[in-house]
Amino acid sequence: DTLVILLSGNYSSHDMTWDGGVNGLATTVAEWKQLEGYTGTITFDTTYTGAFNSLSVTGDVTLGGGTWTHLANTAAEEYRLKVVVGGNVAIAAAVKIDASGKGFASGKARPGSDKGCHASPMGSAGADKLYGDVKKPEALGSGSDKGAGGGAIYIEATGSFANEGQLNVNSFGGAAGSIYVKA
Questions:
Q1: 144, 174, 158: which is closest to 88 by C-alpha?
Q2: Which of 1, 33, 69, 122 is deepest in the core (most CB within 10 A)?
Q3: Cβ proximity of 35 and 11 under 8 Å
């Protein structure tokens, strides 16, 4: 793969959606670089299952500016941010990878679970209502009557992972989401 993504505030800082596999847009790129002056938000249309379940970068990912996120979920685990990198990942202090409020919608939960539940029970939910894997967390947070749960961030790199930025999967009243990083 020879496609190199370079985003720079010198040209544009508009938000964009990367929906690989649609209209010839790649699901695998050679390198992804966002320069310090880039301030836009990239929304990745990566799914739990289906044709575009992860962005693959065969080389390095260098994020100097901007935000990464995924599409918001509703009543099912459909979307998460999943990136598999063949090289190194470097995230600068100005960067956010933010899936806050992108989990299950308000009042929605994984089947067999309970709203506001993920890593710990809320209200009357018992241990049998919990879900997720503590060693490889990649599940969405459930919504509650107060708001949506947190989304899911999954980053796997063959090389190093250097992070000075923010990785957020906060809820908007429900359960927090998941962050999984392997490097």
A1: 158
A2: 69
A3: no
For the purposes of burial, counting CB atoms within 10 Å of the CB of 10, is it exposed (0-12), middle (13-18) or buried (19 or more)? exposed
Token pair for 91 = 């995230």
Nearest to 174 by CA among 152, 147, 153, 151: 147
Residue 112 CA neighbour count, 13 Å, CB half: 5
Report residue 64's pLDDT band, with 50, 70 and 90 as the boundaries. very high
Residue 144 pLDDT level (bands cut at 50, 70, 90): confident
Classify each residue of 157-170 as buried b or exposed e, where b means 16 or more C-beta atoms within 10 Å of its C-beta: beeebebebebbbb
CA torsion sign, 120 to 183 to 60 to 54? negative
Interval 153-162: pLDDT, tens: 999 999 999 9
Q: Cβ(124)–Cβ(74) under 8 Å?
A: no
**Torsional sign, CA 151, 157, 161, 163:** negative
pLDDT at res. 51: 75
Maximum pairwise Cα distance, the chain: 53
SS3 70: strand
What token pair was written down for 1? 């793969």
Model confidence pLDDT, tens digit, residues 74-90? 999 999 999 999 999 99
Residue type, 47: T
